[in-house]
Amino acid sequence: AAAPSAKAEKKRLKSLKKAMGAIAERDAAAEAPEATAAANEDEEDDDEATGMLAAPLANAFRSLAEARDEGDGAVTVGADVPQAQLMKGLRVFLAREVPREWVEFVLLALGAEVGFDGPGSKFDATDAGITHFVVDRPTVDSAYSGRNADLVQPQWIFDSCNAGVLLPASKYAPGAALPPHLSPFVDDEKEGYTPAYAEEIQRIKSRKAAGATAGDADADAEDVPAGVEEDKPKGEVEEEDADDDEEEGSKGKPQTEEEEQHELAKSMMGKKAKRLYERMQHGNQRRQDKVDRLREKRRKIEAAGRA
């Protein structure tokens, strides 16, 4: 048979390409509805997820707004939680630059009354009962200055909430260098290091707790004549003296027995348990080294501040 001519071969290839193009168009048309349906399903899933996240927050805002409108402007959420009463009685005005939604939410949850510059506010900046102005800029508006109210930055709200006590507003004045924001999820005792500001907050809480109980202590002191101590049973006195003598005696002895028991227990460990123990000791040592570095850094900062 004679070989096909070049012209016939070219014509055959052209028809083949045309057929393949028609098949591709048909397949694309068939897949288009499926792709559109899949895209619509993805959008619906995204909308549903967004709605699931937004609905609880929207309901919370709505409930707080309704409670505020029905009452006198103060809202108490979860009376059994100490922070729920933390800012009760405070009348806080938010400056225009403060992110209102979430700051207002926290303030209302802590029992404060909240005002802002805009529709829906219960009071404006001229209200004489305002106790705090929340400002998030170094310069203060003339409408806020010269008033019988504290000027604070937004961090004061969250630090006070985390500490469970109203912190000094002077540390959070507009334009001031803010104290470190301490995480409420860090266990300082477990970490082995307590930041200086955490210690200061603890002292503030202790002073306020002592002030709250001072009245009860004074009342109890009035029942006991001055210079008179309560008598203790003779047996208790002798027992306390014996305990003191025993403690003094134990302090004088070197703790070689405990060290020996520790070494003996270590020598009786299996190879696997010993490796695990050594890794634990290594981790503890690394944590201690970190604590030592933090303490040294703190010591240098405090020394530079005194200089």
UniProtKB/TrEMBL annotation:
Gene Ontology biological-process entries: maturation of LSU-rRNA from tricistronic rRNA transcript (SSU-rRNA, 5.8S rRNA, LSU-rRNA)
Coiled coil residues, start to end: none
Record has rRNA processing as a keyword: yes
Domain BRCT: 82-174
Keyword entries, A-Z: Nucleus, Ribosome biogenesis, rRNA processing
Comp. bias regions, Low complexity: 30-39
Protein name, as recorded: BRCT domain-containing protein
